[in-house]
TrEMBL record:
Binding site for Mg(2+) 2: 328, 330
NCBIfam families hit by this protein: D_ala_D_alaTIGR, PRK01372.1, PRK01966.1-4
Residue numbers binding ATP: 145, 189-191, 197-198, 227-235, 327-328
Keyword line: ATP-binding, Cell shape, Cell wall biogenesis/degradation, Cytoplasm, Ligase, Magnesium, Manganese, Metal-binding, Nucleotide-binding, Peptidoglycan synthesis
Name the UniProt record assigns to this protein: D-alanine--D-alanine ligase
Gene3D superfamilies per the UniProt record, alphabetical: 3.40.50.20, ATP-grasp fold, A domain, ATP-grasp fold, B domain
The organism's place on the tree of life at top rank: Bacteria
């Protein structure tokens, strides 16, 4: 009898980060220990339809001529069920169900809304299935750049000035929003509240550009956050992984640095995934040990401030005086083999295959239901 643990890798999804998620799936599939884990590939097409994807197709996902891969629209839809023996995934073939697999643990490799934001975590909770990563509330808070700042500030973490333009407020009183933005120092960064991969973000250097930038962000999310920009600050990142045996419940990695080469540039989508020469990732960052410890401390606090589970990457800015400010937490950070999160762990002594196994083991340890 096959005693392997069956893992459902779930990828694609309805957010603009669909293609990145497919790349992550190919990476994780290449690293997962197939002697311990039996994998089923479950893709979510851009239309929202679910489908079982053969593993050779998952393994073939890659960037071709600057274009990211995607989950093809399904010929046959996948079905999830809760049965007497737990959760199962199957394929609907007309009136019949075929390819029925029991699933021990779900690993959603989804970034952005409808994946990283508590929605799929809610589905897992309802189905009583174990899953990798943060639960419903932490995922939702960590996805929303407004709510995450509220949680950080409440925990006493340093947060930089910002303005929130909800859909209602933007329609009711746009002039008041623009006036409030004018109290910040330029440049400002205008962001979709629940975005990711820098999509929809604009760096704005004076008040004349704010309105158009808010409209551009609203193409991604009706809720927009406008932040005062850091000038000359270093962009540093720290990986966190749950460790129930450790004080504070987590371990932190070494600190890494993102160095964007263009003077007025920022770490945008192009620099993150497409162009090799626009940004460098330094692992570890060339910073003083005290600054590194301060960032690790803040990362652990940020992890617990939103109630994260499993994994998260905490991104901060450090100014020239060594003062640190939290930018954001990502509860499903970039997770391809060359992403910052795995690279930080690699440097800290945990290889990518070990990391994948450890995250799944953490999910299996955790009880289902309220915890
Ligand atoms: N307040 C800020 N000051 C300076 N740069 C910023 C600021 N906010 C964002 N950036 C730049 O924009 C990038 C993307 O912003 P971020 O808030 O991390 O959004 P995302 O969730 O899309 O990654 C950051 O990595 C950084 O390069
Ligand atoms: Mg970011």
């Amino acid at each position: 009898m096959d005693k392997r643990i069956r893992v459902a890798l779930i990828f694609g999804g309805q957010s603009p980060e669909h293609g990145v998620s497919c790349l992550t799936a190919a990476s994780v599939l290449g690293a997962i220990d197939r002697d311990r884990f039996d994998v089923v590939g479950v893709g979510i097409a851009a239309s929202g339809r679910w489908t079982q994807v053969p593993l050779d197709v998952v393994a073939s996902y890659r960037i071709v001529e600057g274009r990211v891969p995607h989950v093809a629209e399904p010929e046959h839809d996948a079905v999830w069920m809760v049965g007497a023996d737990g959760c199962e995934v199957a394929t609907r073939d007309g009136e019949r169900l075929v390819d029925v697999h029991g699933v021990d643990v779900a690993f959603a490799l989804l970034h952005g809304p409808f994946g990283e934001d508590g929605t799929i975590q809610g589905l897992f909770e309802m189905m009583g299935i174990k899953y990798v990563g943060s639960g419903v509330a932490a995922s939702a808070i960590g996805m929303d750049k407004h709510h995450m700042k509220v949680a950080f500030a409440a925990a006493g973490l340093p947060v930089w000035p910002f303005v929130v333009a909800t859909d209602q407020r933007w329609r009711d009183e746009p002039a008041a929003v623009l006036a409030e933005v004018d109290t910040l120092q330029y440049p400002v960064f205008v962001k979709p509240a629940r975005g990711g991969s820098s999509l929809g973000i604009t760096r704005v250097t004076d008040s004349a550009g704010v309105q158009a930038a808010i409209e551009a962000a609203r193409a991604y999310d009706p809720k927009v956050v406008i932040e005062q920009g850091f000038v000359g600050a270093r962009e540093l990142e720290c990986a966190v992984i749950a460790n129930p045996a450790a004080t504070g419940g987590c371990d932190v990695s070494a600190v890494g640095e993102i160095r964007v080469h263009a003077e007025d540039g920022f770490y945008d989508f192009e620099a993150k995934y497409i162009a090799d020469d626009e940004a460098s990732l330094d692992v570890p960052a060339d910073i003083a040990p005290e600054l590194s410890r301060r960032i690790q401390d803040i990362a652990a606090q940020a992890f617990n401030a939103v109630g994260s589970e499993g994994l998260a990457r905490v991104d901060v800015f450090a100014d020239t005086d060594g003062e640190v400010w939290v930018n954001e937490i990502n509860t499903m950070p970039g997770f391809t083999e060359i992403s910052m999160y795995p690279k930080l762990w690699e440097h800290s002594g945990t290889s990518y295959p070990e990391l994948v196994a450890r995250l799944i083991d953490l999910a299996l340890l955790r009880p289902v239901g309220l915890r």
